[in-house]
Amino acid sequence: MKYEFTKDYHTGIDFIDEEHAKLFEIANRAYDLLTNQFVTDKYDAIVAVLEELRDYTKYHFNHEEEYMKSINYPKRFSQLHQHTQFINKLESYNLKEIDVNQQEGLLEILDFLALWLQSHIKGMDKKIGEAAK
To answer: Name one Pfam family in it (predicted).
Structure first.
């Protein structure tokens, strides 16, 4: 099932919402890769998705962290901790194992993304928008 950036993910901060939408696009590319029956060796595409996800989230987290600092957001440090955990998780994937079992590797990545997008954006990032009001 594709990831849909619905209104219940919106924080009310335009640039954060736009960047979150981009994260959903990357997640959907990973999903499309999982369900593509015509590509038998998906390794290079999986690595590309992981690299884009890592690079884009670093870019996004930097923006989000600067914004939280600018509004003196009280839960900034717990956000920073979760951001670090997310990047560490992306960097911890064993590419050799993913190469051996590409579908399983993609499923693991997609499960991680689904949980992150759901819990972090709805559970933590929306509170930044509430604090900014």
So the answer is: Hemerythrin
CA 119 to CA 4: how far, in whole Å? 14
Pull the structure tokens for residue 46.
Answer: 């999986």
Residues 82-124: pLDDT tens digits?
999 999 999 999 999 999 999 999 999 999 999 999 999 999 9
Token output for 15: 């640039």
Query: CB of 50 within 8 A of CB of 91?
Result: no
The DSSP 8-state label assigned to residue 71 in this structure reads T
Give the integer Cα–Cα distance in Å for 66 and 50: 24
- Among the residues of 71-101, which ranges form H helices? 76-92, 95-100
CB atoms within 10 A of CB 71: 12
